Amino acid sequence: MKARVIALYLPQYHPIPENDEWWGKGFTEWTNVAKARPLFKGHYQPRIPADLGFYDLRLPEVREQQAQLACEAGIEGFCYYHYWFGNGKQLLERPFNEVLVSGKPDFPFCLCWANHDWTNKTWQKGKVIQKDSMIMQMHYSHEDHIKHFLELLPAFRDKRYIKVDGKPLFAVWAPRDIPEETNFISTWQSLAIENGLPGIHFVGYTTNATGRDVKTGKLSLWNTNRVAEHYNDILERGYDAVMSSGLNRAKAMCKSKIDMLIYHIGTKLHLPVHSRTDYEKVMRCYYTDEDAWDNVYPTLLPQWDRTPRAGVVTDPLLDSTPEKFQRSVREAVSIVKDKVPEHRILFLKAWNEWGEGNYVEPDLKFGHGYIKAIKAEIDD
Questions:
Q1: pTM for the full model?
Q2: Which residues contact 128 (CB under 8 A, 6 or more apart)?
Q3: What phi and psi values does residue 21 have, to the nearest 5 degrees?
Q4: DSSP-derived secondary structure for 161-182
Q5: Directed axis angle between helix 369-378 and helix 60-73, to 10°?
Q6: Given Cys at both, which of 51, 59, 275, 317 links 263, Cβ 3.0 to 4.6 Å?
């Protein structure tokens, strides 16, 4: 393969007691997906799944079908979002736990710790304006880092677990949120060695432009020429590599910073604002020279439209097609082609984030188009 494509995978398509309590009986991501409506003429909503339907991830045959489709795309494996809140508390763990215990599907995997709080904005409820409220909060401690590692040790030892340089790959969604992250990383590296592993290959996710300076926290209005600072900030925290996203930077390059600021303020105030950007235009600015660094793993972005989750407060990318996505995959492959083979990693963001309009699973409009686009560009 020209590149190692690892697909981020959302395990939220099954009911859990907590979601029943917070959002209503039987709530899953499909609840939001099915009720989405177009916000303007030509807006592609709702998005309806094709081959797999509105699936339930408690069913092993669904997980097998997903693995078969991923194989069809040439994807190396799934990177399951892992929700560990501290003190042993997990959510949405059932699908991955069943994959681990059953040995099926026989398809590679790794984990991405989605270490962010859940608030009432995590999966928004209708169009009701409501203040932020904490649903499930992250807790960190040295003792919990140990407990967390030991909980995942059986996964790290599984023959299916994806490795880089011989080490299990573990991604962290919000690396800057972990207090004393060097303690977390050093603790896990020591525990890995003690338990017969060569170590952990830590990957920290980051965008490469934000509304605030990465060092000082001051307003920076999406400065688009400080990509290296964002990447180095993650590496200096002890991570082996960076999972990079260029979406914020690309949108800032495609529209005025005033437009970006108005949308940002609108979302904070829960105002009914939406900001549209052309997918193809954004993808022309998505990748950077720094994405060619050996320790940076760029992301593939097939589509983006958070209308199902966000309602009228959203910022969709318009007019994505499999053909346009395929061109962006081609560019990403060219960026990683000169890296050490094991580091030619592209994270697909994502496999099945239907609530963010960010998926490659077949839908009624494009069928297997996005899957075929990946295969066409990464298969030798």
A1: 0.94
A2: none
A3: -70, -45
A4: B-EETTEEEEEES-GGGSTTHH
A5: 50
A6: 275
